[in-house]
């Protein structure tokens, strides 16, 4: 046996005494000891539930009028384009705010991001409700209150949309991250699901359109109360995983520079943004696409609801599977390919009449594969860009989606051909003209197909966060065995 030196030895930043034990005063020793004592807290589920409620509420407010666009245009005595702008304002506002939200989340932390988003969302929903008060609308159009309220809620959207990956990283263990991210991320599509289901039911006639605004304000107020009363910690007292200790190890602007030099991340950001932009336009225009072919609002509402419901089911399966296998890239590529095929199928079937069942099936499968990959893509963005903060890596991807969504929504409206209402159309009660969306749906399918090809062929990456966690665990093992850790 080799002699043991009486002098302390250094391993990296950790000092080892003559007896072979770590010096308890060593900075690296303190870090490594923390790594051996991971812990999760029950409060993480409350935090997750509040984030889900805010996210769902914000999505309901965004898509409020899209499932009943024709009735909304008739009630407010405006064009369909004006109604579409109530959804479009989210994209316009959230693009510049997205950069601020990324900085805010990575610099000030989860607590303040969630609290600020809950208050903005609640105030925006209350201002929207002023459009229903008669004496407030004597001298001005109720649309003013709607646009101001929508804009405030649009400011809240990036803050709460960027939270899921950060929440999963800071509060959940390695084997729960993808599932937690899936639950938090899919709460936003779930809000779209509820709006697609409830808006046509509540606003079955023109005079009930304002009631939709009031009903959707209730969850926004409840979410703000729960967030303010119950969220008090930025992070748990003990980290749940090795990477949680360094979840924002890179300064914000340094992290942005690293992201823009990361080829794999750039490809993922562009392709994810294209898919997100297409889905944003699809959700906003679904009722207008189908009504031209004679499908009533409740059919488009059912199709939109199935689209989201199946997406939640797909995301659940993907989250559980990826938590066990860590096959992020394989899942994203396969699901993106099927999404492109199903968008092509929708472009064809949406031009046929009396095919409600087939449309419902295609929309369900489209949601399953399209939304199913959504939270996994967010986790993959973190994996390929670590140690850049989660707020920055997911935030930049979302901004890409918002920019492309804005471009697509404007472009699709320009491509839609105006027609005088045909006899079998189910669009509008007082609309002078409606639009044929056959060309925009084909363009949707084409863009999605190009994005799928680029992702499948060119995207390759290593899982940097998982590798860092594995190295940290090996360091602990090596030091406990008296071996020098790998730097």
TrEMBL record:
Keyword Transmembrane belongs to the record: yes
CDD domains the UniProt entry points to: MFS_MFSD7
Source organism per UniProt: Pyxicephalus adspersus
Stated name of the protein: Major facilitator superfamily (MFS) profile domain-containing protein
Keywords assigned by UniProt, alphabetized: Membrane, Transmembrane, Transmembrane helix
All residue ranges annotated as the Major facilitator superfamily (MFS) profile domain in the record: 44-464
Gene3D superfamilies, per the entry: MFS general substrate transporter like domains
Annotated GO CC locations: membrane
Classification via PANTHER family: MAJOR FACILITATOR SUPERFAMILY PROTEIN-RELATED, SOLUTE CARRIER FAMILY 49 MEMBER A3
Key word Nucleotide-binding present: no
InterPro entries (alphabetical): FLVCR1-2_SLC49-like (IPR049680), MFS (IPR011701), MFS_dom (IPR020846), MFS_trans_sf (IPR036259)
MF term (GO), any: transmembrane transporter activity
Superkingdom of origin: Eukaryota
């Amino acid at each position: 046996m080799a002699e043991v030196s009486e002098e302390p030895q250094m391993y990296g930043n950790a000092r080892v005494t003559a007896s072979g034990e770590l010096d308890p005063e060593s900075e690296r020793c303190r870090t490594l000891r923390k790594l051996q004592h991971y812990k999760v807290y029950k409060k993480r589920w409350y935090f997750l539930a509040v984030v889900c409620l805010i996210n769902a509420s914000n999505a309901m407010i965004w898509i409020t009028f899209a499932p009943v666009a024709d009735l909304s245009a008739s009630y407010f005595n405006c064009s369909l384009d004006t109604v579409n702008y109530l959804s479009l304002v989210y994209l316009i506002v959230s693009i510049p705010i997205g950069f601020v939200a990324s900085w805010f989340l990575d610099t000030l932390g989860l607590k303040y991001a969630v609290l600020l988003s809950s208050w903005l969302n609640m105030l925006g929903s209350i201002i929207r409700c002023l459009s229903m008060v008669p004496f407030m609308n004597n001298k001005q159009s109720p649309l003013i209150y709607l646009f101001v309220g929508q804009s405030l809620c649009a400011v809240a959207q990036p803050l709460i949309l960027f939270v899921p990956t950060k929440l999963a990283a800071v509060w959940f263990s390695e084997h729960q991250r993808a599932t937690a991210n899936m639950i938090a991320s899919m709460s936003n599509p779930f809000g779209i699901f509820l709006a697609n289901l409830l808006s046509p039911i509540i606003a079955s006639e023109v005079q009930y359109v304002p009631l939709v605004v009031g009903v959707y304000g209730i969850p926004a107020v409840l979410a703000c109360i729960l967030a303010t009363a119950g969220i008090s910690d930025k992070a748990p007292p003990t980290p749940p995983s090795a990477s949680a200790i360094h979840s924002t190890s890179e300064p914000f602007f340094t992290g942005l520079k690293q992201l823009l030099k990361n080829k794999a991340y750039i490809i993922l950001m562009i392709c994810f943004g294209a898919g997100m932009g297409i889905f944003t336009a699809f959700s906003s225009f679904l009722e207008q696409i189908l009504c031209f072919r004679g499908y009533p609002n409740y059919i488009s509402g059912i199709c939109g609801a199935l689209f989201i419901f199946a997406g939640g089911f797909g995301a659940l399966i993907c989250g559980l599977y990826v938590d066990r296998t860590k096959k992020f890239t394989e899942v994203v590529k396969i699901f993106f390919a099927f999404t492109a095929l199903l968008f092509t199928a929708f472009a064809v079937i949406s031009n046929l009449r009396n095919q409600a069942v087939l449309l419902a099936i295609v929309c369900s499968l489209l949601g399953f594969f399209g939304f199913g990959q959504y939270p996994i893509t967010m986790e993959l963005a973190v994996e390929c860009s670590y140690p850049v903060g989660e707020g920055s890596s997911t935030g930049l991807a979302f901004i890409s989606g918002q920019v492309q969504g804005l471009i697509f929504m404007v472009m699709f409206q320009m491509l839609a051909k105006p027609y005088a209402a045909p006899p079998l159309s189910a669009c509008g009660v007082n609309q002078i003209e409606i639009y044929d969306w056959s060309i925009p749906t084909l363009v949707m399918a084409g863009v999605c197909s190009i994005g799928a090809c680029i992702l499948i062929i060119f995207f390759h990456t290593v899982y940097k966060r998982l590798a860092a966690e594995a190295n940290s665990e090996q360091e602990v093992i090596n030091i406990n065995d008296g071996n020098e850790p790998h730097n």
